[in-house]
Amino acid sequence: MKITISAIKADLGAIGGHIKPSQDLLAAVRNYIAAKSKGILIDYKITYTGDDIAILSTHEKGAENGKVHQLCWDAFITGMKVAKEQGLYGAGQDLLKLDFRGTCKGLGPAVAEMEFEEREAEPFLFLAADKTDPGAFNLPAYLSFCDPMHNSGLVISSKIRQGYIFKIMDVGCVNAEKIIELKTPEEIYDVAVLLRDQERFAVESVWSRATNEQAAVISTTRLHNIAGKYVGKDDPVMLVRTQKEFPGGGEILSPYSIGHLVAGFMRGSHNGPLMPVKQGTDVSFFDGPPIVSAAAYSVHDGKLTEAVDCFDHPYWDYVRTQISKKAQDIRRQGFFGPAMLGMGELEYTDMAQTLKNLEKRFTIKKAD
Ligand code: F6R
Ligand code: MG
Ligand code: MG
Is 213 within 8 Å of 124 (Cβ atoms)? Predict the structure, then answer.
């Protein structure tokens, strides 16, 4: 059976700043989908990570389907109204343009969708990150699909060692979707050259060369491209099919042991280590650290099993302790150097004005 998995998420407002959505807000989104999804969706799950609410759904309608997107959009609008009634902070933060025209893409919500013929057994992971942006998935995607130190399938499995096609987006391009296709393993260093720049390039999708099947898709929204200015971090979502010609679930999770530094954290303007957390975790220290959750599912005829919360395991408690130390290390230097993002990536523009004001007061020292 050919199915589509859609992950559409939005920050609709949160309690106490950017911490987590209220129960009433979550209930509003859940009730809306429960009441209106009949005949559109086969199945769905509604979860939150930090202050972002994600609608994960299955259906037979393909990617960017008007009915599926309208349903999610209307659920978000309903949620935003509750957020406003409750005085939640940043109510409707990710609903940047309100003229819905058949797709949530380009309006603010993060969208990741994949259409494929179900395999006999179809396991996949749904990852959601908060207080960061799509580039946060660059390093883990690179390591899971290109590096045998994380993906033992690259040396063990003849299917996996045939490699993958990476579609990488230049998210600096404002007016169009500018994408390059690179083949691994032969172009692995070119992939690395692009993906190291987490703010400029982001993985859009990954495809198996053995079967031409799609392995992964990541939301690549840049809110500032939509709004014309910085209005919040583009907290991303990722769907990735696992096993057989794809990395195993554990190989997708393996790179999250690193706690690599990503853009985001407090005021969306700092670098901090990405911490793997349970679904439904909020943020705390310095509006962070940036977090990522992972839920594993199996799907059959579009029907989802219950989720396995992948980072809810004793191993990840140890990892979280290590990553907390890394977070403290970088936080010790406050806003100096790499602890804070460069001028182009700051969510605030006031500092540029301060620099302009100070510029007038510089004097040129004349040579004697
Ligand atoms: C991400 C998020 C943050 C905020 C940022 C600025 O979930 O909401 O990136 O956009 O913390 O928020 P203000 O300026 O509202 O304090
Ligand atoms: Mg927010
Ligand atoms: Mg968020």
Answer: no
